[in-house]
Amino acid sequence: MGRVAELAGVSVRTLHHYDEIGLVRPSARTAAGYRAYSAGDMERLREVLAYRRLGFGLREVAELVGDPSTDAVAHLHRLRGLLVERRDRADAMVAAIDRELVVRAKGLKVTPEEQLDMLGARLYDAIGGAYTATRRTEPRIAAQIRDALGDARTVLNVGAGTGSYEPADLDVTAVEPSAVMRAQRPAGSAPCVAAAAESLPFEDHSFDVAMAVSTVHHWGDPMAGLHEMRRVARRVVVLTFDTDEPGWQDRFWLTRDYLPEFAAVLSGFPSLAGMAGAIGARAEPVPIPWDCADGLFEAYWRRPGAYLEDHVRRAMSVWTRVGPEAEQRALRCLGDDLDSGRWAERNGHLADLDAADLGLRLLTA
């Protein structure tokens, strides 16, 4: 037990307590009568300590590690999802601190309310909460997704967020790991399970279709999540982004001319071919209407002034990911080009388009 305590970085007293309450009981004894841990015991101890260090109470940990339907791999996926969410929260806090430092460097005052919004308990709520202001179902994109669902009756919506694009005429179950997002789901929406895409708590082939809309890039392990969708459903429909095409970031004037950092945001994102191959899917373009009702990152391709609006940008995770310096530089340059007419000179041809292909793809398997 002393050696195990040393390896795990805990006290022998802690291990004794875990044994007493049945959380981690050594399954063997040495010839001298000392407790001995098997490989399975060590694996369980690793899971217990990992959940404890993420802030879970002993009762919650006991329920998590005692779940007979969850094996070691599922625990690893769950832990990874929790850590990724915590990392994203930390990234958001860093971005908020950077914004306040910029304000203070200009000699401007920051009100107590602004300080609480930026650094207090409401920070993540404010970031996630911005989605309901501009993120909603775009009917034309919804129609394309609905066609892909075909004759399905039961649908699992993975990474469901606030519930956009959930078909009202089908039996939908939602999965969303973020409590902030779950709290914003409207009354009467589909029941929502707190879980990560990489570890779906459902039996094989439980649903006719598993769908995921503009969420895969937020997952800790996109390929694992896609395999899970394939496991729990007979068919899979995923709205995602194509980074396979050379020079893909030049399709959209915002990333081409003002925000080259966007390429780095998706640097580790799986290829479209890889995602399609993982689930046996075909890909089709999803044009974005010029008056798109869903305020996704590319939605305002014909309405450039919208990107200067803070409430519009706050509902786009890209801006948090690139950081405040890149954001402010992009806004300054875009504002200057709109005022001078340079943006119109470069992009005047867009006024004749009703929709644009900016890399959104629908994978259907």
Notes on the protein architecture:
The chain is an alpha/beta fold. The protein has 18 helices and eleven strands. It starts with a helix and ends with a strand. About 2% of the residues have low confidence.
Task: Name some characteristics of this structure.
two-stranded antiparallel ribbon, 365 residues, globular, single chain, 18 helices, alpha/beta, 47% helix
Gross morphology: globular
Radius of gyration: 24 Å
Run of helices and strands: HHEEHHHHHHHEEHEEHEHHHEEHHHHEE
CA-to-CA gap between the ends?
50 Å
**Percent in strands:** 5-15%
Strand order of the largest sheet: 5-4-3-6-7-11-8
- What is the overall number of helices? 18
- Overall SS class: alpha/beta
Q: Characterize the biggest β-sheet.
A: 7 strands, mixed
Mean pLDDT: 87
Q: Total strand count, please? A: 11
Relative helix content: 40-55%
